[in-house]
Every structure is written in C-alpha cells, then in structure tokens.
Amino acid sequence: MVASRRAFSTTRAQFSSPYHYPEGPRSNIPFNPLTKWFALRYWSFMAVGFGTPFGLAVWQTYKNQ
Prior knowledge:
1 helix
C-alpha cells in the first residue's frame, strides 16, 4: 500500500554558503563578541545573574524580622 508510506526527504538542503544565513557567522546575534571588553562584560553579566538570587536569599535571612 503506497498511501501508508511517509515521505521523508533524504536530500541535503541546498545553501549558497556553508552557513544558514547569507551574511556569515555572528551576523544573527545582537552583540559583537569580537570587541576588546566582551569577555569582561559577558562574565560580569553572568555573575550578576547567577549571584542575585543567592544575595537576595542571604539578605532575606539576615534582615530584621
């Protein structure tokens, strides 16, 4: 029965470049990772985001009741 077979495509998608977007790598993100201070800004952002819940928990624990 031919109607019961599922038709999966086995051919590769044809792109004009090895990337999925024509502008090239790093063109689809809203920041530039090649700047001088990117690593410092990135790790600062991550530390604040990760540390804030712990800092708030300590503050709630030690504040006057």
